[in-house]
C-alpha cells in the first residue's frame, strides 16, 4: 500500500509584499523632520506611535539597520553642529548653557532611543552602534571635545572652585551636573581631573609656603583641617572620589609633609606645655596620615619626654617623685585623649621613663620609698585619694630597676611607721604590700609581711604581760611601757647604743625578760632603744604639758628632774650617748620649734662647752606636743649603709645564680653564662659586676677555667 503526503492549503495567501527599491529613502524623507523636531524640542507632525511604526517597518526588512542608524547619526551630528556654533558665539553663563544643552540632549535621546528600541535589541546591530552610544559619542566629540568648548569647561570649573576656595558660595548643583556629564562621557579625567590636580597642587604648595611663616601652629593646623574638610565636602558635592582622594593627598603632601618639621619644631612642645589638647588631637590626626608621620611624631615625643624627664630627675629630692607622677599622668592623658591611645607612643613613653629614671641607679628607688612613706604618714589625705596615689606610685615602681634598693629603704621607713605608730591607715599599708606582692611575688614581700606579723604578735605579748603585771603587788609603781618583740632577720639593722636607762626602765626590762623567757625558752632578746619613744608629763610655769619625745630625748629631759643646769659633758656622761647622737638630740630640744631646753651661749650648733637649763617658761597652745625627732632622719652615712647592705645582698644573689647555673650545666662558655645570668637575675647588674663575681668564685674554687678553652668554665663539685 503506497503512502501519500498530507498537504495544508492556505486560502487567500498573497505572499511577501514587494519592497520598492526607493522605499528606505521615502520612509526617511518622512521620518527625518520628525526626528529633527524631537531634537529641537518641537512638536512632531505625527504621533510618537506612528513614528515608531515607521521605524518598525524599516526594521522589519533585511539590511536596513545600518542604513537607518547611519541616517540617524547624520541627523544628530548635523543638529549638534548647529548648536555648537550657537554655543561658541556666546560665553556668558557658559556652564549653565552647556548644562541645559546636555540635559535637553539626554531627554531627546531618551525619546529617540525608545523610537529605535527595536534596533537596540536587534542581534544584527553591534553594541557600539546602539542609539545611546551613537548619541553620547557624537555629543562628546562634537561638543565637549571641541577645543574651545573643552577649554571653556575647564576654565569655568576651575574659576568656580577658586571662588569657592576664596570663600564665595557657588552653584554646586551646576558643578555636579557638569562633572557628571564628563563622567558619563568618560572624559572626566582628561578634561578636568588631570588639570585640576595640577592647579590644586600649585595652589596648596604656595599656600603652605606662605602660611607656615605667618600663622601660629594652632592657626596653621586649623587651616589644614579646614582645607581637608572643604575638599571632603567638595568630593561629596561635585567632584568624584578619585579627585577627592587626590586632593587629600596633595594637602597632606604640600601642607603637612613638606612642613612637618617646622610644625613640630614650632608647636609640639608648646601645645603639650599649654595642655592644648584640642590642637594636639588635630596635630596627631593630621600627621599620622602622612608617610613617616608616626616616626616624626615619635621622635619629637621622645625628645620632649627625655628633656622634661631629665629636668625632673635633677629637681630637689622632695619634688622629684611628685613631679614624675604629675608628668606621667599628664602624658597618659595626652596619649589617651589626643593620640587615640596609640600603643606605640605608650611604649615610647615607657622606654623614656625607664631610661631617665634608671640613669641614676640608686637615687630614684630611694626617693620613691621616701615618697611612699610620706603618703602613708599623711593625715590630711582621704582613703580614696591615698589608694589612687598608691596606684600611681606603682606605675613608677614598675619602671625602677633597683627594686632591692626600694625594698631596703621602704623597710626602714615602714619600721618607723610601725614602731612609732605613724601610719595613716593599716588598710593602706596592707594595700601597698598587696601591690608589691602582685608586682614582685611573695618572696619580695616575705620580710615586709613578717614585720607586720611581729607587730601583731607584740600586741598579744604586751597584753599578756600587762595581765601578768596586774597580779604583781608592785603594779602601781610600774611605768606604763610597751615593748615590741621583733624578728631580727625581718627588720632593718640599726646601730647599737649602750645608753644609761632610768632604773624604772631597767626594772621593767628585767620583768619582761623573765616573763618572755617562760613562754619562749631558747630565744634571746637583744634590746634596741634607737626607735623607742615616750610620753613625758611636764609641769611648766605656764601650765602642764605632755611631750611626745624619743627615748634619747627622754633620757636627757629626765636629767633635769634632779638638776636645774647641766653642761654638755655632764649630759654625755649621764646618758652615755655618743657625740653625734647627743648633738642631734640636743639640737631638737634647744633649736627646734618647741624649745623645752635653753642653751648658753645661744646658737644653732652644739659645742662641748655649752650649758643647758630647763625652759620653765615654755608654752604652747597644744596640750600634747611632739618634739621634732631629728635623730630619726637618715644621715648620709645611714643611707650609705643601707645601700651597702643591698649591694652585699646582690652579690649573694649573683653568686648563688652562678653556682646554680654551673651545677646544672657543668661546663659553659663565658658568653652563655653571662646571657643566662641576665635572664635569671631580676636585680640591675652590669657585665662588669658579673665578671667580678665569676673571678671571685674561681678564686674560691667553686668553678675553674677550662684548660682546653679559657673562655669556657667548668663546675668544681
From TrEMBL:
GO terms assigned for molecular function: ubiquitin protein ligase binding
Keyword Lipoprotein: no
TM spans (from-to): none
InterPro entries: Cullin (IPR045093), Cullin-like_AB (IPR059120), Cullin_CS (IPR016157), Cullin_homology (IPR016158), Cullin_homology_sf (IPR036317), Cullin_N (IPR001373), Cullin_neddylation_domain (IPR019559), Cullin_repeat-like_dom_sf (IPR016159)
PROSITE patterns (alphabetical): CULLIN_1 (PS01256), CULLIN_2 (PS50069)
GO cellular component, one term: cullin-RING ubiquitin ligase complex
SMART domains associated with the record: CULLIN, Cullin_Nedd8
One BP annotation, GO: ubiquitin-dependent protein catabolic process
Residue span, Cullin family profile domain: 363-590
Keywords: Isopeptide bond, Ubl conjugation
Protein family per UniProt: Belongs to the cullin family.
UniProt name for this protein: Cullin family profile domain-containing protein
Amino acid at each position: 500500500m503506497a503512502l501519500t503526503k498530507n498537504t495544508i492549503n492556505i486560502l487567500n495567501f498573497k505572499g511577501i509584499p514587494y519592497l520598492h527599491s526607493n522605499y528606505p529613502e521615502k520612509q526617511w524623507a518622512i521620518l527625518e523632520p520628525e526626528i529633527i523636531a524631537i531634537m529641537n524640542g518641537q512638536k512632531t507632525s505625527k504621533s510618537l506611535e506612528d513614528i515608531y511604526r515607521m521605524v518598525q517597518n524599516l526594521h522589519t526588512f533585511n539590511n536596513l539597520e545600518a542604513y537607518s542608524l547611519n541616517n540617524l547619526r547624520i541627523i544628530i551630528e548635523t543638529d549638534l553642529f548647529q548648536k555648537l556654533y550657537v554655543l561658541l558665539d556666546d560665553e556668558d553663563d557658559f556652564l549653565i548653557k552647556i548644562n541645559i544643552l546636555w540635559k535637553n540632549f539626554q531627554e531627546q535621546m531618551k525619546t529617540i532611543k525608545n523610537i529605535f528600541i527595536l534596533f537596540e535589541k536587534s542581534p544584527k546591530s553591534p553594541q557600539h552602534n546602539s542609539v545611546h552610544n551613537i548619541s553620547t559619542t557624537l555629543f562628546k566629540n562634537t561638543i565637549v571635545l571641541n577645543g574651545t568648548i573643552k577649554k571653556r569647561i575647564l576654565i569655568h570649573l576651575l574659576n568656580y572652585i577658586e571662588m569657592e576656595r576664596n570663600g564665595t558660595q557657588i552653584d554646586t548643583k551646576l558643578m555636579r551636573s557638569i562633572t557628571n556629564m564628563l563622567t558619563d562621557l568618560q572624559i572626566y579625567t582628561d578634561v578636568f581631573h588631570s588639570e585640576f590636580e595640577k592647579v590644586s597642587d600649585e595652589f596648596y604648595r604656595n599656600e603652605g609656603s606662605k602660611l607656615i611663616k605667618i600663622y601660629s601652629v594652632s592657626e596653621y593646623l586649623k587651616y589644614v583641617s579646614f582645607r581637608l574638610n572643604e575638599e571632603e565636602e567638595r568630593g561629596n558635592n561635585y567632584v568624584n572620589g578619585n579627585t577627592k582622594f587626590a586632593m587629600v593627598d596633595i594637602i597632606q603632601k604640600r601642607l603637612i609633609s613638606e612642613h612637618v618639621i617646622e610644625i613640630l619644631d614650632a608647636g609640639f612642645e608648646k601645645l603639650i606645655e599649654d595642655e592644648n589638647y584640642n590642637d594636639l588631637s588635630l596635630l596627631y590626626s593630621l600627621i599620622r596620615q602622612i608617610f613617616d608621620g608616626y616616626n616624626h611624631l615619635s621622635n619629637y615625643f621622645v625628645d620632649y619626654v627625655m628633656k622634661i624627664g631629665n629636668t625632673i630627675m635633677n629637681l630637689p629630692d622632695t619634688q622629684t617623685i611628685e613631679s614624675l607622677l604629675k608628668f606621667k599622668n599628664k602624658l597618659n592623658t595626652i596619649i589617651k585623649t589626643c593620640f587615640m591611645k596609640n600603643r606605640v607612643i605608650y611604649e615610647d613613653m615607657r622606654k623614656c621613663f625607664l631610661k631617665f629614671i634608671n640613669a641614676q641607679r640608686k637615687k630614684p628607688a630611694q626617693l620613691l620609698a621616701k615618697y611612699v612613706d610620706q603618703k602613708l604618714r599623711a593625715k590630711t589625705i582621704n582613703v580614696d585619694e591615698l589608694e589612687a596615689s598608691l596606684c600611681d606610685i606603682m606605675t613608677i615602681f614598675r619602671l625602677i630597676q633597683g627594686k632591692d634598693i626600694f625594698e631596703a629603704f621602704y623597710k626602714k621607713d615602714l619600721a618607723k611607721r610601725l614602731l612609732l605608730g605613724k601610719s595613716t591607715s593599716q588598710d593602706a599599708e596592707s594595700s601597698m604590700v598587696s601591690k608589691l606582692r602582685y608586682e614582685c611575688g611573695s618572696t619580695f614581700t616575705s620580710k615586709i609581711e613578717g614585720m607586720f606579723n611581729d607587730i601583731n604578735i607584740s600586741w598579744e605579748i604586751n597584753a599578756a604581760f600587762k595581765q601578768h603585771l596586774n597580779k604583781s603587788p608592785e603594779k602601781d609603781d610600774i611605768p606604763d611601757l610597751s615593748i615590741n618583740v621583733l624578728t631580727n632577720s625581718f627588720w632593718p639593722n640599726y646601730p647599737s647604743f649602750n645608753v644609761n636607762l632610768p632604773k624604772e626602765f631597767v626594772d621593767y626590762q628585767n620583768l619582761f625578760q623573765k616573763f618572755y623567757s617562760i613562754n619562749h625558752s631558747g630565744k634571746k632578746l637583744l634590746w634596741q632603744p634607737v626607735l623607742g619613744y615616750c610620753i613625758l608629763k611636764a609641769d611648766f610655769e605656764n601650765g602642764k604639758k605632755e611631750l611626745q619625745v624619743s627615748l634619747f630625748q627622754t633620757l636627757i629631759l629626765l636629767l633635769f628632774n634632779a638638776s636645774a643646769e647641766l653642761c654638755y659633758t655632764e649630759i654625755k656622761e649621764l646618758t652615755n650617748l655618743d657625740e653625734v647622737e647627743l648633738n642631734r638630740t640636743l639640737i631638737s630640744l634647744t633649736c627646734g620649734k618647741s624649745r623645752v631646753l635653753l642653751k648658753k651661749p645661744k646658737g644653732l650648733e652644739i659645742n662641748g662647752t655649752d650649758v643647758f637649763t630647763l625652759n620653765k617658761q615654755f608654752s604652747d597652745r597644744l596640750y600634747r606636743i611632739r618634739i621634732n625627732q631629728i635623730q630619726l632622719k637618715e644621715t648620709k652615712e645611714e643611707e650609705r649603709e643601707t645601700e651597702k647592705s643591698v649591694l652585699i645582698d646582690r652579690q649573694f644573689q649573683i653568686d648563688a645564680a652562678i653556682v646554680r647555673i654551673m651545677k646544672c650545666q657543668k661546663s659553659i662558655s663565658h658568653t652563655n653564662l653571662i646571657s643566662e645570668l641576665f635572664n635569671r637575675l631580676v636585680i640591675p647588674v652590669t657585665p662588669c659586676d658579673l665578671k667580678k663575681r665569676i673571678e671571685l668564685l674561681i678564686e674560691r674554687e667553686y668553678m675553674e677555667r677550662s684548660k682546653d678553652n679559657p673562655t669556657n668554665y667548668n663546675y668544681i663539685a
